[in-house]
What does this fold into?
Amino acid sequence: MLQDVAVHSADTPTPDQLDPSAMRAQYRAEGLAEAELAPSPYDQFARWFKEAATSGLHEPNAMVVSTADAAGRPSSRTVLLKRFDEHGFVFFTNYGSRKGRDLAENPHVSLLFPWHPLARQVIVTGTAARIGRDETAAYFRTRPHGSQLGAWASDQSAPVASRTELERAWNDLAARYPEGEQVPAPPHWGGVRVVAETVEFWQGRENRLHDRLRYERESGGEGWSVVRLAP
It folds into this structure.
């Protein structure tokens, strides 16, 4: 008697491959010791960011930005980091978007850099504030022409009737501001700087004994202390 045989092609996932509880990866990366850390979290971030960028990781500046409204309802989305230094981490957005409205009501924010291929994460908590209009205008001029028009065409986070309506708005702007003509920065669009209160560097290790070293701003805001967290 012939028996039924389950055949899985290379493109067909097995049941285990679709079961989250069966998905496991063993981390074997070198660890992160306190003695190896830079004096400030921004310097340490610069080290890891350089390694992420030179590793070939796709969009190493992609980060998950988590906000909460005045009632504490959270929301998260992926945003691109555009600048960082000892003053904080900067990204750009429509101030009328959900994250923009959240930050106007509640400036507390979390940033997560998920560098999975390197078995690394960086988690930032801090407070957000808008940057100056001169800074925003200077960055806006560096954006591709189509992206400049997109900042005007999209009422970010608001309902839109159709894709056609969105593209019509963009095409109308393209006719008004043809390629090569300067597009002004929208007044409702600009930069946000997150000033860190804590920055955690997470390094995956074998047997789930990960290294978690967190910089915490000392009282007075003049320096940093480092604490090791259990994985």
User: Anything to note?
Assistant: The first strand starts at residue 62 and ends at 68. The chain has five helices and nine strands.
